Fold this protein.
Amino acid sequence: MHFSYATTVRTVTTVALLACLPGIASCSSNSAKLEQNQLPTVQVSVGQYRVTAELANTEETRQTGLMNREYLPNNNGMLFVFARTETQCMWMKNTLIDLDVAFADEQGRILNVEQMKAGTTDIHCSQGNARLALEMNLNWFTERRLGQGDIIKMPAQ
């Protein structure tokens, strides 16, 4: 089969770029993990319990959430602060640990708690207009008898 010089150069360039993609994706993934581990934290209270929560308050941090994490320490979680108060939904794609999510309104009142299985694309939504969502280890809310009507208290800012 006959290839022109331009076709050969194009083919070699394409093969070289494809060979580099796994390394580039790895760098991107490591960068996302580094950023994720450097999120600011806030102290929140849920009922009588204190929680250290990483703050996901930008579009990017809310989209990434707890993806690719292998472990979440006890009484630690992630607090999602949404730009608008409306029905909010989450899924667990690329999330490695089972989680609970408590959706709450603007006053921090829990609307509902959903249990979410790692790695699934099942959609979990708030039962009403939510401004916040607090993700914790699976059964965290149940073990503490917390749920609908309980308050997530945050710092004033």
